[in-house]
Design a protein that fits this description.
alpha+beta, 5 strands, 155 residues, 18% strand, Beta-Lactamase, five-stranded antiparallel beta sheet, single chain
């Protein structure tokens, strides 16, 4: 169960990253502070560093895993956040940084991937592997994240 210091689930999701198969950050969205914990917003350079670092760690974990079919790190647990990752078959990575113990992040990532395929990849003006600038994707992503927050409030 995810709870915040303010008693709402509004800050359960801290940020969303989408990284192309080459490790470049193509989308970043921050979802506000963390209920009074004083978390600072990241600037563009910080978000690029986080994306690059995660891409590298993910690739190294695939190579170092004793399991031959390992697809990389899916979940990173820390004291102050959880990082959930979903990698598509094309190598595009979607990861969410959220409050520790936030449920259903795997299903939210799959919904985000579906929105990506529907609104970004089917957009005739989108160039593959380039930054995502698609208003319909942004709108539908906001709706999906809001639905997830409402579902957390009901638990």
């Amino acid at each position: 169960m995810a709870t915040t210091t303010t008693g709402t689930a509004a800050a359960a999701i801290y940020s969303l990253y989408i990284i192309n198969k080459s490790g470049g950050l193509i989308y970043y969205k921050e979802y506000g502070g963390v209920g009074g914990t004083g978390r600072m917003r990241m600037d563009t350079n910080d978000s690029l560093r986080v994306a690059s670092l995660w891409h590298s760690m993910h690739a190294i974990s695939q190579q170092l895993s004793p399991t031959p079919s390992c697809s990389g790190i899916d979940l990173l647990l820390a004291d102050s956040f959880d990082l959930h990752c979903f990698q598509s078959l094309t190598g595009t990575k979607f990861f969410v940084v959220c409050e520790p113990g936030t449920p259903n992040m795997e299903s939210l990532l799959k919904v985000i991937y579906e929105l990506y395929t529907d609104y970004v990849l089917k957009n005739p003006f989108y160039e593959m592997e380039m930054p995502i600038r698609c208003e319909l994707f942004d709108i539908n992503l906001s709706v999906a994240v809001q639905k997830d927050r409402v579902a957390l409030l009901g638990r």
